[in-house]
Amino acid sequence: MDANFSWKSHVEAISPKATQRLYFVKLLKRAGVLNHQLLHFYLTVIRPILEYAAPVWHHLLSKCHSDHIEATQKRALNIIYTCTYGMPYSNALFLAGLTSLTSRKEKLSRNFFHSTEQYPLHVYITYFHPHAILNFSLV
Known about the structure:
Largest sheet: none
Strand content: under 5%
Helix content: 55-70%
Protein backbone atom coordinates (compact mmCIF):
# COMPACT_ATOMS: atom_id res chain seq x y z
CA MET A 1 0.00 0.00 0.00
CA ASP A 2 1.38 3.41 -0.86
CA ALA A 3 0.91 6.81 0.78
CA ASN A 4 -2.36 7.38 -1.11
CA PHE A 5 -3.83 4.14 0.29
CA SER A 6 -3.57 2.61 -3.14
CA TRP A 7 -2.26 -0.80 -4.13
CA LYS A 8 -0.67 0.60 -7.28
CA SER A 9 2.85 -0.14 -6.01
CA HIS A 10 1.85 -3.74 -5.26
CA VAL A 11 0.47 -4.22 -8.76
CA GLU A 12 3.58 -2.60 -10.23
CA ALA A 13 5.74 -5.00 -8.20
CA ILE A 14 3.96 -8.24 -9.09
CA SER A 15 3.47 -7.50 -12.79
CA PRO A 16 7.16 -7.68 -13.78
CA LYS A 17 7.63 -10.87 -11.74
CA ALA A 18 4.75 -12.55 -13.52
CA THR A 19 5.87 -11.22 -16.91
CA GLN A 20 9.37 -12.66 -16.44
CA ARG A 21 7.88 -16.05 -15.75
CA LEU A 22 5.57 -15.74 -18.77
CA TYR A 23 8.69 -15.44 -20.90
CA PHE A 24 9.76 -18.81 -19.51
CA VAL A 25 6.37 -20.23 -20.55
CA LYS A 26 7.11 -18.99 -24.08
CA LEU A 27 10.45 -20.77 -24.04
CA LEU A 28 8.85 -23.97 -22.81
CA LYS A 29 6.18 -23.68 -25.53
CA ARG A 30 8.88 -23.33 -28.19
CA ALA A 31 10.63 -26.38 -26.74
CA GLY A 32 7.50 -28.44 -27.37
CA VAL A 33 6.17 -28.79 -23.83
CA LEU A 34 2.54 -29.92 -23.87
CA ASN A 35 -0.29 -27.47 -23.16
CA HIS A 36 -1.46 -29.20 -19.98
CA GLN A 37 2.10 -29.04 -18.61
CA LEU A 38 2.36 -25.35 -19.49
CA LEU A 39 -0.96 -24.72 -17.77
CA HIS A 40 0.30 -26.58 -14.71
CA PHE A 41 3.42 -24.40 -14.71
CA TYR A 42 1.26 -21.27 -14.90
CA LEU A 43 -1.00 -22.44 -12.07
CA THR A 44 1.87 -23.36 -9.76
CA VAL A 45 4.48 -20.71 -10.53
CA ILE A 46 2.80 -17.61 -11.93
CA ARG A 47 -0.74 -17.44 -10.57
CA PRO A 48 0.39 -17.54 -6.91
CA ILE A 49 2.36 -14.35 -7.57
CA LEU A 50 -0.77 -12.68 -8.89
CA GLU A 51 -2.87 -13.85 -5.93
CA TYR A 52 -0.41 -13.46 -3.06
CA ALA A 53 -2.24 -12.07 0.01
CA ALA A 54 -5.33 -11.40 -2.13
CA PRO A 55 -7.78 -11.28 0.80
CA VAL A 56 -5.92 -8.20 2.07
CA TRP A 57 -5.85 -6.12 -1.10
CA HIS A 58 -8.39 -7.52 -3.53
CA HIS A 59 -11.34 -5.32 -2.60
CA LEU A 60 -9.18 -2.20 -2.57
CA LEU A 61 -7.96 -2.50 -6.16
CA SER A 62 -9.17 -0.08 -8.76
CA LYS A 63 -10.75 -1.57 -11.88
CA CYS A 64 -7.69 -0.48 -13.86
CA HIS A 65 -5.30 -2.37 -11.57
CA SER A 66 -7.55 -5.41 -11.44
CA ASP A 67 -7.72 -5.44 -15.25
CA HIS A 68 -3.93 -5.12 -15.40
CA ILE A 69 -3.52 -8.26 -13.27
CA GLU A 70 -6.22 -10.05 -15.27
CA ALA A 71 -4.36 -9.20 -18.49
CA THR A 72 -1.41 -11.24 -17.26
CA GLN A 73 -3.58 -14.34 -17.06
CA LYS A 74 -4.98 -13.60 -20.51
CA ARG A 75 -1.44 -13.36 -21.91
CA ALA A 76 -0.60 -16.69 -20.28
CA LEU A 77 -3.60 -18.34 -21.90
CA ASN A 78 -2.66 -16.85 -25.27
CA ILE A 79 0.82 -18.33 -24.96
CA ILE A 80 -0.36 -21.74 -23.77
CA TYR A 81 -3.31 -22.04 -26.16
CA THR A 82 -2.36 -20.19 -29.33
CA CYS A 83 -5.90 -20.64 -30.66
CA THR A 84 -7.12 -18.13 -28.03
CA TYR A 85 -5.61 -15.10 -29.81
CA GLY A 86 -8.51 -12.82 -30.67
CA MET A 87 -10.91 -15.00 -28.70
CA PRO A 88 -12.99 -13.41 -25.93
CA TYR A 89 -11.33 -13.85 -22.54
CA SER A 90 -14.30 -15.77 -21.14
CA ASN A 91 -13.99 -18.33 -23.95
CA ALA A 92 -10.24 -18.70 -23.33
CA LEU A 93 -10.96 -19.28 -19.63
CA PHE A 94 -13.53 -21.94 -20.52
CA LEU A 95 -11.07 -23.66 -22.86
CA ALA A 96 -8.45 -23.78 -20.10
CA GLY A 97 -10.96 -24.77 -17.41
CA LEU A 98 -10.14 -21.69 -15.33
CA THR A 99 -12.03 -18.79 -13.81
CA SER A 100 -11.07 -15.14 -13.89
CA LEU A 101 -8.56 -13.97 -11.31
CA THR A 102 -11.13 -11.49 -10.03
CA SER A 103 -13.64 -14.22 -9.23
CA ARG A 104 -10.88 -16.38 -7.71
CA LYS A 105 -9.71 -13.53 -5.48
CA GLU A 106 -13.29 -12.90 -4.36
CA LYS A 107 -13.65 -16.57 -3.48
CA LEU A 108 -10.30 -16.61 -1.67
CA SER A 109 -11.36 -13.54 0.30
CA ARG A 110 -14.70 -15.07 1.25
CA ASN A 111 -13.04 -18.32 2.31
CA PHE A 112 -10.40 -16.50 4.32
CA PHE A 113 -12.85 -14.33 6.23
CA HIS A 114 -15.27 -17.22 6.67
CA SER A 115 -12.49 -19.31 8.22
CA THR A 116 -11.69 -16.55 10.72
CA GLU A 117 -15.30 -16.69 11.92
CA GLN A 118 -15.00 -20.40 12.72
CA TYR A 119 -12.05 -20.07 15.09
CA PRO A 120 -11.61 -17.61 17.95
CA LEU A 121 -9.15 -14.80 17.34
CA HIS A 122 -6.96 -15.85 20.28
CA VAL A 123 -6.04 -19.01 18.36
CA TYR A 124 -4.42 -16.87 15.66
CA ILE A 125 -2.61 -14.65 18.12
CA THR A 126 -1.17 -17.57 20.06
CA TYR A 127 -0.24 -19.52 16.96
CA PHE A 128 1.42 -16.70 15.04
CA HIS A 129 3.22 -15.00 17.92
CA PRO A 130 6.97 -15.73 17.55
CA HIS A 131 7.47 -16.65 21.21
CA ALA A 132 4.00 -18.16 21.80
CA ILE A 133 3.95 -16.46 25.22
CA LEU A 134 0.92 -14.28 24.76
CA ASN A 135 -2.51 -15.80 24.78
CA PHE A 136 -5.07 -13.05 24.39
CA SER A 137 -8.70 -13.84 24.07
CA LEU A 138 -10.34 -11.05 22.13
CA VAL A 139 -13.60 -12.89 21.64
